[in-house]
Specification:
With 434 residues, the protein is α/β, with parallel strands linked by helices. It has 2 domains: 16-69 and 335-433, Alpha-Beta Complex (Aspartate Aminotransferase, domain 1), CATH 3.90.1150.10; 72-332, Type I PLP-dependent aspartate aminotransferase-like (Major domain) (Aspartate Aminotransferase, domain 2), CATH 3.40.640. Helix content is 36%, strand content 15%. The protein has a 7-stranded mixed beta sheet with strand order 4-12-11-10-7-5-6, sandwiched between helices. A 4-stranded mixed beta sheet has the order 1-2-3-15. The chain has a 3-stranded antiparallel beta sheet with strand order 13-14-16, covered by helices on one side. Helix 11 runs parallel beside helix 13. It binds pyridoxal-5'-phosphate. Residues 121-123, 126, 154-156, 213, 218-219, 247, 249-250, 275 line the site of pyridoxal-5'-phosphate.
Length: 434
């Protein structure tokens, strides 16, 4: 069998036996992917296998690692906090790392996001956002429950976040449990008016909130739209008194070129969700931030107006220390300059693909680059994704295409040589499939 034929069949041949490990991995079909790659060490933009092979982490370990793996100031803060306080109940108690992080967050997020609710994952902070929105309307005595979403969005994998996300093969089994939402079309270039008109019409029906990924839909295929559209959508929501929820779980912490994507549009959301890069990608942590009006709607001597939400590890002190250290890095180091350098390096390397007939829709949003490989069967479940993944893995590149969409979202410390290796790999993948 030729090397090419081996790649083409590798992903569709079921393994002979059952997995040796008891672990059930996320988004993994174990019958098609019998073996996991063990990783024992991370440093900067690299991951290392037990044999010492160096893998370039071109997707920041699923979009979380910003400055690099084991970034020294963050790791130091984690070690120091572990020596002080590991965990404490957060109802009725507080602690210095949470207070310090919350104060810094209020300072760096859009003016008007005055309150910080802690949780521990992107999905959870979106759930919290939805609950805050519904709680707001109920507590001001004008109950509203309908949520407006954007076509093709992803907000998480819990029942609530799947409900506000795109429907499809990922959640077909749970469809009967998902609640109804109203949807505006994705603002395709040149057809932005359709999105705005649809949003205008839906907002006139007095929904509770509009939730959106600002500037770029991540899991939905790295689809990008402009800050002007984001600003226009915010204006429409504001005019109708509809709460605007920005899901910055992926876009936050510099990915789109600015600290937050909303910064580029001058948009102040009523509720904003941040996670992934919040700790620089070192530990799980999330926050939902909200306006004073939303907090105040829950602020009462009436106990029924309490915001009834918690998870066991809410505001874990070690994770908060990592988050606070991340904000110190942003304050003390030239992170925006690194981001700008990465943006320029990505732009330069995308050039060679612009006139390449095998690729379409070569695009970039800040530090994120994406391009679509032209193939006949392009859905996520088409074999192309796993085939490409296996091909890149053989070249020691961690890339995980979304169907035929290949994207590069590396830690900010990635070098030009690393990027050359990544883009040479992408070109070679097109050769392999030709
Ligand atoms: C990843 C992601 C989530 C979910 O975050 P988890 O930490 O995986 O639960 C939510 N929204 C967006 C936009 C994301 O990219």
């Amino acid at each position: 069998m030729s090397a090419k034929a081996a790649y083409l069949t590798a992903s569709v041949t079921s393994s002979a036996g059952r997995p040796a490990s008891p672990i059930w991995h996320p988004f993994t079909q174990h019958a098609l992917q019998p073996e996991m790659t063990p990783i024992v060490r991370g440093e900067g933009a690299y991951l290392y296998t037990p044999e010492g092979a160096r893998i370039i982490d071109a997707i920041s370990s699923w979009w979380v690692v910003t400055h690099g793996h084991r970034y020294a100031p963050i790791i130091e803060a984690i070690k120091a906090q572990a020596d002080q306080l590991d965990q404490v109940i957060f109802a009725g108690y507080t602690h210095p790392p949470a207070e310090a992080l919350a104060a810094d967050l209020v300072a760096v997020t859009p003016e008007g996001l005055d309150h910080v609710f802690f949780s521990d994952s992107g999905s959870t902070c979106v759930e919290v956002a939805l609950k805050m929105a519904l709680g707001y309307w109920r507590n001001i005595g004008a109950p509203r429950t309908r949520i407006v979403v954007m076509e093709g969005s992803y907000h998480g994998d819990t029942i609530g976040t799947m409900s506000v996300g795109a429907r499809g093969v990922f959640n077909a089994a749970y469809a009967p449990l998902l609640f109804d939402v109203a949807q505006v079309p994705f603002p395709e270039q040149g057809r932005e008016e359709e999105t705005l008109k649809a949003l205008e019409a839906l907002c006139a029906e007095a929904p509770a909130a509009f939730i959106v990924e600002p500037l770029i839909l991540g899991s939905g295929g790295m689809k990008m739209y402009g800050p002007d559209v984001l600003a226009a959508m915010k204006r429409i929501c504001e005019a109708h008194g509809v709460l605007f929820i920005a899901d910055e779980v992926m876009t936050g912490w510099g990915r789109t070129g600015t600290l937050f994507a909303c910064d580029q549009a001058g948009v102040v959301p009523d509720i904003a969700c941040y996670s992934k890069g919040l700790t620089g990608g070192s530990l799980p942590l999330a926050v939902t931030m909200c306006s004073r009006a939303i907090f105040d709607a829950h602020y009462s001597e009436d106990r029924t107006r309490t915001f009834f939400h918690s998870s066991s590890y809410t505001a874990n002190p070690i994770a908060c220390a990592a988050g606070h250290a991340n904000l110190q890095v942003w304050r003390n180091e030239p992170v925006p300059a690194r981001i700008e350098a990465l943006r320029a390096m990505q732009a330069a390397r995308l050039e060679r693909f612009r006139d390449d007939a095998r690729f379409a829709d070569v695009r970039q949003c800040g530090t994120i680059a994406a391009l679509d490989l032209k193939v006949n069967d392009a859905g996520y479940l088409a074999d192309i994704g796993p085939r490409l993944r296996a091909f890149f893995a053989d070249r020691h590149l961690l890339l995980r295409p979304l169907g035929n969409t290949i994207y590069v979202m590396p830690p900010y410390c990635v070098t030009g040589d690393d990027l050359d290796a990544i883009y040479d790999g992408i070109a070679a993948a097109a050769e392999m499939l030709a």
